[in-house]
Amino acid sequence: MLLALLDSSAAIDLAREALLVAVVMAAPMLIVGMAAGLIIGLIQALTQIQDQTVSFVPKLLAMAAVLVACLPWLMTRMLEFTRSVFENAGGL
């Protein structure tokens, strides 16, 4: 019974860590996309231009720029998580 409890606890910790890493890695792009959408929405409301491509393309470009800028940090974070999973795999 104790062994099953330890295994489920380790699995829950691993799942929590994976979700936290995913949220941290996605946050910069999502925040920039949300800010760009807000700014473009305000501009569209002021100018009364309601074309969907006017909001989609700048958001896409802003998120791609953040992805390129943050890619080294994202890869480092992903490699750290993968390394810790493989190092601790024997203990699970």
TrEMBL record:
It is a multi-pass membrane protein. Its main location: membrane. Keywords: Bacterial flagellum, Cell membrane, Cell projection, Cilium, Flagellum, Membrane, Transmembrane, Transmembrane helix. The keyword Phosphoprotein does not apply. The chain crosses the membrane at residues 20-44, 56-75. It is found in: Cell membrane; Bacterial flagellum basal body. Belongs to the FliQ/MopD/SpaQ family. Role in flagellar biosynthesis. This is Flagellar biosynthetic protein FliQ. The gene is fliQ.
